């Protein structure tokens, strides 16, 4: 692994590199190109959403001497801004410079003209930390700044910035980065940095980062310490959180009304020393997905990038409940306070499992948690076997190709275009499992290589299995053009 932190290495240098915040990027870009910018900006929003990064890119763009793509990275100012000798962009952390004297010193520096760029730009981070007097001193300059001065203020606590300051600024509110944007960006980084990571582990990192790109990249950096494949288990261990299987198993016990088993699963995880608040969030998060799945019936469309195992688990659990019951099951969890202790969680398990609605008869006997785990492991969550008397043929595959594409594009939007390059060539009964093996051929060698990857093959297998409601394993072959 390289020695520069990934987060610093992947810090955006142009507007195009910025992840998320697209409305803000567009407004600022237009403003810079049209030269209609203001002399003071206020960026507010949660930590890790890219305020300081955007401020730096904006500052470099305003100072860039190019007429086209700003910042160009080529001109004297852009090149200079990468060096220590560049004084036209000045960053101040208000958290450690809170007093009026600091602001006076800053204002003195506004008298100097820019050296390389068009403006002297002051980026003030965490501006809400200024004292009252410091804000008063800043206000005077903000009211009538010298024409060559621009202020970009950033804050995580918008409410603490005085109204008088806000009214002098052009304001932009930053949003949390979406899970989809975050996953896509992490995927790019992992690929370029040659970090071997399972797609499910990648999604887990994105989810754990709770909307902060900085958190997500740092987390990836910490886990990718060696060349070993990063899977979900490694992420769970690193974070000290309950395993995904145990969360799913617990939810199963709630749906089945198996209070004792639920309590045992929780206590096992507790003994492993997992984070309790995280456990609550995970159970609640899973039940929430299940509720959406039950009510909308379109879970794959609501959550992008959902892996096959999770999708199968939700489909399986949706069968065990209905809208009315799942709302009652989720309630005790939704009512838990952030400070909930283990007794609160045990009570939630008791209340929640009493609310279950049984479409199928209850399980006959009490199982030990080990057995529960075994009976519920993801490998067993394969689609229901299709009890047909006739075998599937290539003709069946051809006839239902469009249905297969409809299912595939739920998970892979460009799936229809890609599948134009494949054709089914052979289907046989699987000798080991109750299902089929389907061979697809393509004369595009690169595509064939790409689809040798396990996750891609699994995606196709999943979509075929869903279409025909029986397990179908896909193999990919390359055939050269005649
Ligand atoms: Zn430039």
Explain how this protein is built.
- This protein has 482 residues and is an alpha/beta fold.
- It folds into 4 domains: 168 residues, P-loop containing nucleotide triphosphate hydrolases (Rossmann fold, 3-Layer(aba) Sandwich), CATH 3.40.50.300; 61 residues, Helicase, Ruva Protein, domain 3; 116 residues, Zinc Finger, Delta Prime, domain 3; 110 residues, DnaA, N-terminal domain (GMP Synthetase, Chain A, domain 3, 2-Layer Sandwich), CATH 3.30.300.180.
- Helices cover 50% and strands 10% of the residues.
- The chain has 24 helices and 8 strands.
- The strands form 2 sheets. The chain has a 5-stranded parallel sheet, with helices on one face. The protein has a 3-stranded mixed sheet with strand order 6-7-8.
- Helix 6 links the parallel strand 3 and strand 4.
- Helix 14 packs across helix 16.
- The radius of gyration is 28 Å and the shape is globular.
- The two termini are 45 Å apart.
- Zinc ion binds next to helix 4.
Question: What are the salient characteristics of this protein?
Answer:
482 residues, alpha/beta, Rossmann fold, Helicase, Ruva Protein, domain 3, Zinc Finger, Delta Prime, domain 3, five-stranded parallel β-sheet, three-stranded mixed β-sheet, binds zinc ion
